[in-house]
Amino acid sequence: MELRQLRTFEAVVRHRTVTDAAVALELSPSSVSEQVRTLERSLGVALFERTPKGMRLTGAGERLLSWTGRLLDQAEQARREVTGQARALRLGALETIAATHVPGVLTRLAARRRDREAIPVTNHGRPPGTHRPDTEVPATPSTSHNEPLPVSRPDAEVRVTAGTSRDERLLVSRPDAEVQVTPGTSRDDLLAAVATERLDAALLLDAGDALGDLGFAAPPAPLTFVDVGTVPLALVAAPGHLLTASAHVVPGDLAGERLLVNVPACSFWMAADRIIGPGPERVRAGSVAVMRAWAEQGLGLALLPEFAVSDSLKNGTLIRLPLTTPDLSLRLVWRSDREDLPGLRDLLYAASA
């Protein structure tokens, strides 16, 4: 069982077809297929069922997947330790969040590391004259863990690896820290990657006191989280819509309206289900940008994050309807059994600042 075979196996699982995995790995489909078959022969079990809709994991494949992230992660850690390189933290984020929230997190993370290195540290990580670790994290609201993380170690760097998709990444290097940011369009994929240790943490949108209270199912893994911010929502319509003249709007007023949405798994569709209910007709438009553009053209209402419509509200191409809309939570999720990862504590502080 070779590391390159495990990487290929993981890519096939993630992309669901040999062809797409081959594109991501920059290999030929025949090479990907041969590596998978060689891995199956070495283990003496079938890892995939070949179906017309793609590759589906067998029971043995599911068991191997639970090990793959850890094995590849340990190999990467060993390589970095041997070569004297710092370990990269792997942060996933929904694409919208990656564009609007992650840059500030990375800037604060780099600043925090510089500040920490400028402070003389004694007494197991406590700066002189203090009574608590300078890196202590407040108790985290969580489904499985509420203890502070251990004191962070100084051997994590920040390298930004980002792009328009999980396979197209632009490397931006910094000498003082390293975080590999992987934008994604699917919250379920991000959570699965954290659960299987292909990511160390993920930023996503949720609501309520437990992971998944927005309306999605969390994977069966020891996941914990901390809410690091809020994302206000706005129900918007084009100027001239009848409801723009109302002093107050309640969900019942929206019956029979057209509500622009993306897909049922979208955080904003789920938020609409919680806040508005089933009254409006759902009209699938597409991404946040498409929903905003359609709403500006009067094709329907849209429930979107404030940051996505702030310019439209300022220039008058959209009007905010006076409906009470609870904020969504910006939630950082990680595995509770991997809290000793170098740099994770600093990432929590940077995300929470």
From TrEMBL:
Q: Gene3D superfamilies given for it?
A: Periplasmic binding protein-like II, Winged helix-like DNA-binding domain superfamily/Winged helix DNA-binding domain
Which GO MF terms are attached to this record?
DNA-binding transcription factor activity; transcription cis-regulatory region binding
Region Disordered, residue ranges: 116-156
Q: Which domain of life is it from?
A: Bacteria
- The residue ranges of the HTH lysR-type domain are 1-58
One Pfam family per UniProt: HTH_1
Q: Which InterPro entries does the protein's record reference?
A: LysR_HTH_N, LysR_subst-bd, WH-like_DNA-bd_sf, WH_DNA-bd_sf
Give the UniProt keywords, A-Z: DNA-binding, Transcription, Transcription regulation
Q: Report the family membership.
A: Belongs to the LysR transcriptional regulatory family.
Q: What is this protein called?
A: DNA-binding transcriptional LysR family regulator
Q: Which organism is it from?
A: Sphaerisporangium siamense
